[in-house]
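Project outcomes to date are best conveyed with an example. Our students and postdoctoral researchers have been running inverse folding experiments weekly, and each run begins with a structure described purely in tokens. The record below, which covers 348 residues, was selected by the lab manager from last quarter's runs and is presented without edits.
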């Protein structure tokens, strides 16, 4: 994969400090899920009660507590993402820790993209001796937690939020970035009222050279993966695969469950290959139309990201939606279970 770092410079600061803890840097490696991991039991994983891991053999959390002017607090996702506070301003951030050798590869999608209101922004980068610490604006929970708490969203709210998701995906595709591992958890709220979404975590993305979006690897999340990835032994369209995943996202927020799900991974993949799913009659005709236009078995028949934003469903409401469910940082529903240690096959 060719990485292009010649894109416009992001509005961030780059510093080097030497105060990191070297004893635990091995625990900060970035992990990536693959399709071979089976989904955990349960008919509706996105609505399942929170579980806690009892696995005591996994690596302990690193002892690192500060870097530069920031204090690192509890881990928020695995062992490489932390809630952080600036000592002087007391402003909160999200900090991601990358190994030095992986830094340029993982940061490349961020540097490729021009600024966009629905793509997360890098606030600052601090270079340690062995790791790189990247600080993003604070978030107020992700869409997985929000949908799990609300069960499903009413269409007015779904229109308002999904339009922002589709806009983020379109911006990535127009700039040669294929997301590959698109799912609910990657969209986070950046306001306490939960009305503003950004796409976070671009580390699994693939950068394209030119207009050819052909990919060959089988990277993705079982619940969101497209049938062509499971069927094809050759290349497939990365952008079309993203649209399928985005269709799964839309179905899930409207219905409250995945369109394809099963306890056994083989059965799950068989359902995805067939591409047959049911849509509740309670959804409006326009909502059902958009879902079907994205979850088409043939990649060539799916809408492109720019076409999604022109669909009538996204323009059927003239009222601006205002959330009536303010966020609580201490709510258990906002804590995503550590699936790296417990339910490894589940991706949200």
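After processing, the design step wrote out the following sequence:
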């Amino acid at each position: 994969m060719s990485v292009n770092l010649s894109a416009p410079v992001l509005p961030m600061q780059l510093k080097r400090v030497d105060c990191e803890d070297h004893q635990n840097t091995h625990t900060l490696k970035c992990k990536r899920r693959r399709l071979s991991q089976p989904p955990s039991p349960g008919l509706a994983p996105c609505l399942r009660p929170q579980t806690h891991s009892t696995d005591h053999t996994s690596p302990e959390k690193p002892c690192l507590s500060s870097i530069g002017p920031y204090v690192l607090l509890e881990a928020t996702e695995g062992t490489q993402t932390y809630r952080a506070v600036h000592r002087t301003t007391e402003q909160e951030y999200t900090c991601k820790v990358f190994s030095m050798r992986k830094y340029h590869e993982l940061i490349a999608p961020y540097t490729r993209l021009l600024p966009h209101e629905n793509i997360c922004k890098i606030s600052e980068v601090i270079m340690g001796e062995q790791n790189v610490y990247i600080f993003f604006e604070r978030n107020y929970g992700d869409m997985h937690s929000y949908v799990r708490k609300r069960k499903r969203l009413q269409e007015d709210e779904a229109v308002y939020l999904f339009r922002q998701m589709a806009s983020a995906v379109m911006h990535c595709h127009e700039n040669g970035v294929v997301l590959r591992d698109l799912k609910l958890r990657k969209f986070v709220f950046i306001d306490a009222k939960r009305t503003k979404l950004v796409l976070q975590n671009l580390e699994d993305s693939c950068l394209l050279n030119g207009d050819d979006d052909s990919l060959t690897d089988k990277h993705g999340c079982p619940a969101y993966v497209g049938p062509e990835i499971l069927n094809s032994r050759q290349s497939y369209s990365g952008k079309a695969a993203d649209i399928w995943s985005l269709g799964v996202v839309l179905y899930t927020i409207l219905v409250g469950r995945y369109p394809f799900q099963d306890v056994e991974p083989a059965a799950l993949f068989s359902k995805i290959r067939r591409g047959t799913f049911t849509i509740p009659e309670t959804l409006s005709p326009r909502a059902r139309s958009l879902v079907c236009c994205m979850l088409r078995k043939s990649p060539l028949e799916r809408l492109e990201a720019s076409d999604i934003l022109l669909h009538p469903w996204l323009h059927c409401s003239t009222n601006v939606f205002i959330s009536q469910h303010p966020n609580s940082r201490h709510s258990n529903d906002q804590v995503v279970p550590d699936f790296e240690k417990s339910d490894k096959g589940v991706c949200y």
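The two ends are 26 Å apart (CA to CA). Helices lie at 100-112, 143-150, 155-174, 227-231, 238-255, 265-274, 285-294, 305-308. The training component of this project remains on track.
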